[in-house]
Design a protein that fits this description.
427 residues; alpha+beta; Antithrombin, Chain I, domain 2
């Protein structure tokens, strides 16, 4: 019987630079210098293509399609809960993983994740475009944690360097698996400003772990026009089950925002400072089945809602909220058709010779908070791979019942975060 050593890929929505420490403590944050070596291709990161290039448009459309499909697949897991996912983060980590996949493994990943010939170049250009956004904080980092004795193929290391800005950082998985796990979790916490904690659960890294691919993303943006704290007030929020709770709402009785409405829905989009990004809110009609409505929002419907937005003056009320959500992704991705990458027949020989690798589990965790001044969001994904990773306006938008939201980059169409608020009072 073939044994599979563990290769993990970790994604975090904290976009920040990578700076591991060296030392040795109980929290696993530090390791001796001799155990921490960097191996990286000499090739520089490729220059970014234009934000409106075909490769970026292809990648962002793929992310919107995958975002809708995965969120719908997770509908039972997320039922009745505040929840969010980041297709951007998942694509970064699984993009690095897919770079080493071959045969049916690569084909299934491409089909489910909507990857294609332009994926690596598109992700590289998109990441650099987001890094350049004004007046907001968006930090993106990728890295690859490896057991010291593993040898990775030169071509694979070239792809990591050129398109993901990543190299290989060694950790002593065999001798100190729990310290390694804690070290990576500490890295995640730092890159998400402590918003994502304990991404990798106890036991997720073992003495058989070969590598951990890591992406981190962090987002924080002030509103272009902040809500006045004096206008914040308590009001009723109607839960999906029929009961009502009282929560604080931010309010602007004459907000100049993008607005649209259609059969069974209203939508409003409010800009962040700098004008490059915005947050879209989609409110189902009163009395609608939220689950059924959410499942109906595929990429085409989402794009249609965005295309119909137009400036208007709106009496806008949104509940303040802050929550963390999590999900494992092996089951939903398998149900979507990505089965071989999780099986012993998986082919990741594009990464390393003489070993067979298979994804064991994928952990995903997000954080989103909204208040009068700003929105903050973070996410982390860990792919465990095993070896064989004014005056009141006439229009009102009162989010007094469950709604969907998306944090969008306007010029590229990228959706950084997508989620639902079912109960603003729950963390």
């Amino acid at each position: 019987m073939e044994t599979k050593r563990t290769l993990s890929a970790l994604l975090t929505l904290s976009l920040a630079a990578f700076a591991p420490a060296c030392g040795g403590g109980d929290d696993g944050e530090d390791f001796p210098e001799a155990q921490h070596v960097t191996v990286k291709s000499a090739l520089p990161r490729k220059a970014a293509g234009a934000a409106d290039s075909a490769e970026v448009k292809s990648v962002t459309r793929a992310q919107r399609e995958f975002n809708a499909a995965l969120f719908n697949q997770l509908s039972d897991t997320f039922a009745g809960k505040n929840a969010a996912i980041s297709a951007l983060s998942i694509h970064e980590a699984l993009g690095m993983t897919w770079a080493g996949a071959k045969g049916e493994t690569a084909s299934q990943m491409a089909a489910v994740l909507r990857f294609g010939a332009d994926t690596h170049a598109g992700l590289n250009s998109l990441g650099q475009a987001l890094d350049s956004r004004r007046d907001v904080t968006i930090n993106i980092a990728n890295s690859f944690w490896s057991r010291p004795d593993k040898v990775w193929m030169d071509g694979y290391l070239d792809t990591l360097a050129e398109y993901y800005g990543a190299g290989v950082e060694t950790l002593d998985f065999a001798g100190a698996p729990e310290d390694s796990r804690k070290f990576i979790n500490k890295w995640v916490e730092k890159k998400t400003s402590d918003r994502i904690k304990d991404l990798l659960p106890p036991g997720s890294i073992t003495s058989d772990t070969a590598a951990v691919l890591t992406n981190a993303v962090y987002f924080k943006a002030p509103w272009a026009k902040a809500f006045e704290t004096s206008d914040t007030h308590d009001a009723a929020f109607h839960l999906a089950g029929g009961s009502t709770i009282t929560v604080p709402f931010v309010s602007d009785n004459a907000a100049d925002v993008l607005y649209a409405e259609g059969e069974g829905w209203q939508a409003v989009q409010k800009d962040f400072k700098g004008g490059d990004l915005a947050m879209l809110f989609i409110l189902p009609a009163e009395g609608a089945d939220f689950g059924a409505f959410s499942r109906s929002v595929d990429a085409d419907k989402f794009d249609g809602i965005v295309a119909s937005l137009d400036y208007n003056q709106v009496a806008l009320q949104l509940p303040k909220f802050k929550f963390t959500s999590s999900a494992t992704l092996k089951s939903p991705l398998s149900a979507m058709g990505m089965t071989v990458p999780f099986e012993t027949s998986a082919d990741f020989t594009g990464m390393t010779e003489g070993s067979s690798l298979a994804i064991g589990e994928i952990f995903h965790k997000t954080f989103v908070a909204l208040d009068e001044k700003e929105v903050e969001a973070a996410a982390a994904t860990s792919v465990i791979v095993e070896d064989k990773a004014s005056a009141p306006a006439e229009i009102s938008f009162i989010a007094e019942r469950p709604f969907l939201f998306a944090i969008r980059d306007l010029s590229t169409g990228a959706v950084l975060f997508y989620g639902q608020v079912m109960n603003p009072s729950e963390d």
